[in-house]
Specification:
Length: about 325
């Protein structure tokens, strides 16, 4: 139901703004020991196909007390990452979400550049998977940034199998920003210029002042290993997840460029379907948009208003996270 969807994911929105994050110094230390390309210990092969990479249960990966994400009496939350394919950008939120959902995260095979550009193939894989899972339990699909575009594409094609969709700072705004021009320049740039442009975008448009303050605060006072502020089970999870989170930033350039090249056409197709069909394009599947008001990359606050006006209040609800940027 729509009310339950909104209530459950308010924890995602609020925790993006207020949660206690691992300290920058801990992340830097973890970086020294993290593998160049983290892989889950217990990958889940969906549909018997490995082309796009497996799924994994983040709670089982990083917590010794988590239950398997296979219970038919709990709804499934399937999470899709953003443009760079980092599978753990929401790792701080997963424990809260796992109270109500069995959480599975897609782990892209970022060693396969061609798979990175196969948007249609990935969407077909997800449609087949949610169709099978929906036979035994409710399935909610969540996507962040480009993952939000892909989640909406799945909802357009297979809405009868979804109980809800969550789009976090969705990149459906791509055609209405200056990003097409920036993307074209990055796609044609030599490696050194690509690296400079990536650093510039990350430094000026991805984060937010709130994140910076949190990092600086935890340099002085990190709450993770204080049992009075962080329960031991949560501390265990966070300490185990930090190295994988750091390793997740190692996205190969070729994979990223393939994903980047496919973003524009994917966003155009999803927008065309929503503009032509309105709420009917989602077949009654409720959509929740979580949008940062300080998102300078995807302009999520104005984009959430555009999508809500297009789909109507009955089909689309919006939760704004004050002061949060694209990754906030």
């Amino acid at each position: 139901p729509r009310d339950r969807l909104h209530t459950s994911f308010c924890c995602l929105a609020s925790s993006r703004a207020t949660c206690s994050c691992p300290s920058f110094s801990e992340a830097a230390a973890a970086c020294a020991t993290a593998a160049a390309a983290w892989q889950p210990r217990a990958p889940i092969d969906w549909n018997g196909a490995a082309r796009h990479g497996p799924l994994f249960d983040p709670m089982r990966e990083f917590s010794s007390t988590a239950k398997p994400s296979s219970s038919a009496d709990r709804p499934l939350l399937l999470s899709l990452p953003g443009l760079d394919g980092h599978p753990l950008t929401a790792f701080v939120q997963f424990p809260a979400l796992s109270r109500d959902y069995d959480v599975l995260q897609w782990q892209p095979d970022r060693s396969n550049a061609n798979a990175g550009g196969d948007h249609a193939g990935l969407v077909s894989e997800i449609c087949a998977y949610v169709a099978r899972e929906s036979e035994r339990r409710d399935v909610v699909l969540m996507g962040e940034s480009f993952g939000g575009v892909q989640a909406l594409d799945v909802a357009i094609r297979a809405n009868e199998h979804l109980a809800g969709v969550i789009a976090v700072n969705p990149a459906t705004s791509f055609p209405r920003t200056d990003l097409p021009e920036i993307a074209a320049e990055m796609l044609a740039a030599p490696a050194w210029r690509f690296a400079l442009m990536s650093a510039w975008l990350f430094g000026t448009r991805v984060g937010d002042a709130q994140q910076t303050r949190t990092i600086l605060k935890t340099l002085v006072d990190n709450p993770i290993n204080d049992p009075e502020r962080t329960p031991p089970e949560l501390a265990e999870y966070l300490n185990a997840a930090i190295p994988a989170f750091v390793a997740g930033f190692s996205t190969p350039r070729d994979y990223f460029l393939q994903r980047l090249a496919s973003l524009g056409p994917a966003a155009e197709a999803v927008n065309a379907a929503l503009e032509a069909g309105g709420a009917a394009a989602l077949g009654g599947t409720p959509l929740l948009i979580v949008a940062g008001t300080a998102d300078r990359l995807a302009l999520s606050e104005s984009e959430s208003a555009r999508l809500r006006a297009l789909l109507g209040d009955d089909a689309c609800s919006v939760h704004l996270v004050e002061g949060a940027g694209h990754s906030g």
